[in-house]
């Protein structure tokens, strides 16, 4: 019940009793190993799909650019998401693979820290998806970025999670 | 035909003949007024939806934080997307509104520049969506960010577009 | 006495014996819990004060934007202040409240780290004050940002401090 | 009257009718030459004042570090202030000089752009002041940063201003 | 002669008469098309050279990562070099190719702006070289980054230059 | 042999078996004290050398600007080098000294972390060299940045290294 009194509504940890946004205080939490996996999808036309595939077959740059942007994006999470705590990421891996009418993106992020890395994994997926979109936007303006969600989460007080 | 010979595949403007990623040369393009509108959606549980709504009714911070993060994210686009040209945005507006099982996000971006602002609008939507997710993630781990797409685009050589 | 010989002048820890600026070596210091509180004030005309108050009553965005900018600014401290050590902030809270002819700003920052967070708290106040100024500058060009100072400091070798 | 209807309150150009923060649309404004001058002051103990002066006499690094941080800070303004438009600064000059119980800081910023550079000049002063504070904080914890204000402003539709 | 009197020493345009660093005032200069080409070299052991080559033959990621980092680095130049003016780059191209005992790096940068893009081209080469070093540092600790220099420069008042 | 199977080629720790770039997983490595020293050189004409020297004798700003840029650059390493892990630097020192036909630059960086700080030291040297170049480029367009290399490295599993 202690938590309910402190927050305006159950669970919105970034909002205090008065409804004001704030960065949660994690000072007293121990630094533990944490991992999060997130996924997303970019749906595109057969033409855009083929153009990226063909470019990838030659030198691999199209998908690689998306993967690299995702890795770098993960490191910028606390700059982008106002109430995110800065974390020292110990591992970031992003994969991009062809899948049903487009490309699947998956990011795996690890840290030894006081908060989880869900936002870092989701940010990696989002930035990789935006980059893939940027590569193919001259071919297809109807692409859709979607299904960005948390797949699993390990470590931390709130326990493990698997979608 | 000139364009086809220069690129490895029709339309992948960020990939050259050899399959290497590069930043398109827009040196000779005139700076014109351009606008792009993008939208996305965050699907969430009734509990998360309600928690954000309740916090918003009090002080408005939950949705406002997402909107502000989207505006700031738009300004960071060229930092995040490797091959994006830097642009001086002359207007960014982000709205977040309750809609079917979650929240709709819309971003409108304008510039006077040599390239379009699709990526800036899509980045604004993505960062706002990630921020909304961050606000409610303690309540609901099954949220999904999706339907991020271009709604319309005005200005520039390639003509106007409307989804 | 050891310290006096190492520095060009007593106390300027960021300046070595030869007068050259440098980042202090904190490698051997333990990481301990630290907290700093800073305050500042933006003095403005009654018209500007009222305009912000009115906007705040409606949706809360005026003051909220300043608070959020302060929180994000705290996370950028080591990017802005040349000789500041990067720190993983575990908590940042910024409040903005009406007070004698303007608005008072207070920032509270915590970390588990090798150096204190005074600069982070002062940066949060400064960026929040600049943002409040930016909101009201079309109404009042005579606003003054001032009284930015350290209120208290806990943790670390140099002991606690209270203004 | 047109403006009044568009805004929730006269003059808060960054807040729309509904009270929501936004980035003002300057798409239709011409790019003109603009200049702003801002000033501020860091009040400190005689000991801190002397320590900085002594270090400066040797190699000049103490004041120089503050000036350089101010110049770099000006370039980061749109990253820090949420609703600021990005601008291509064509000139930034920061001076730091001993004055009544501390140091005076002045910043002069110029651009050819669609909006003024008040915030860039004020940000330069703020970051220079914070850096000076950082240099002397081991000697004096009672320093106060204050009197940060706009001195003059030239160019743009709203006309010239002089404090 | 006018210039000589303004500067402390002939040519150090970033240093004023008093010896203080500043950002040159380019407010009155017209925006013209400018280009700069810079080159550099990373010398490495046969083992490191082969490891990068082998990885590149498979998926191209080793050299591609360096090229992409160079492109992104060019966009960060004004953030890194204190007195550099921000510029809107209209084109950045980085190539990395095997050459006498290591890899040659070349960057070509274009803008329509008030100052040249030498620093952007040199920064692109430097960041690409550092990234290549990072890829191979586990194999070879004796690598040397060198020969970073301006190859050519076009546009602007000071005329064209070719090494 | 375990390592060979995991990597596509011996030693390219940032490239996996399939040739894809990734950020090495250091989650299980302990945080230990690490130090790296790197050096580089800027070769320039007697005129440029003298101009910097003269400016330095007056106020010290020319060399100081380079040193400060190097310190700040070290803190941006993980932003610039795609696969670098973020680290909390506990010490950065950069020196710039006249030497055979130009200036020598040395950077010393320390951290308590899971990976070494070679890249941070090399980045500090590179950014300081670029800044020195920027200061003198109006006098001499034939300057060459070179000899950027690791001098020594302490701490971490791979043992100490001295060039």
Could you describe the 3D structure shown?
The structure is a homohexamer of 163-residue chains. By secondary structure, chain A is α+β, with helices and mostly antiparallel strands. The first copy, chain A, folds into 2 domains: 1-25, no CATH class; 31-155, Molybdopterin cofactor biosynthesis C (MoaC) domain (Alpha-Beta Plaits, 2-Layer Sandwich). The first copy, chain A, is 34% helix and 29% strand. Chain A contains 5 helices and 5 strands, in the order αβαααββαββ. Chain A has helices spanning 2-6, 46-58, 61-75, 77-80, 118-136; strands at residues 32-43, 89-99, 102-113, 144-154, 161-162. A 5-stranded antiparallel sheet of chain A has the order 2-3-1-4-5. In chain A, strand 2 and strand 3 form a beta hairpin. In chain A, helix 2 packs across helix 3 (61-75) and helix 3 (61-75) runs antiparallel to helix 5. The longest helix of chain A has 19 residues, at 118-136. Chain A is elongated and about 50 Å long. Residues 1-9 of chain A have low confidence and may be disordered. Strand 4 (144-154) of chain E pairs antiparallel with strand 4 of chain F.
Count the domains of chain A. 2
Which architecture of the largest domain in chain A per CATH? 2-Layer Sandwich
Overall 3D geometry of chain A?
A: elongated
CATH class of the largest domain in chain A: Alpha Beta
Q: Helix/strand/pairing class of chain A, anyone? A: alpha+beta
Q: Which parts of chain A are unreliable, with pLDDT below 50 for 5 consecutive residues or more?
A: 1-9
| Termini Cα gap of chain A | 27 Å
Computed CA radius of gyration of chain A, to the nearest angstrom: 18 Å
| Percentage of residues in DSSP E strands of chain A | 25-35%
> Which assembly state applies to the chains in this document?
homohexamer
Number of strand elements of chain A: 5
Please list the strands of the largest sheet of chain A in the order they lie side by side: 2-3-1-4-5
What helical percentage do the residues of chain A reach?
A: 25-40%
Mean pLDDT of chain A: 88
Main interface: chain pair and counts: A-B, 70 and 71 residues
**Largest sheet geometry of chain A:** 5 strands, antiparallel
Order of helices and strands of chain A: HEHHHEEHEE
Reported by name, the CATH topology of the largest domain in chain A is: Alpha-Beta Plaits
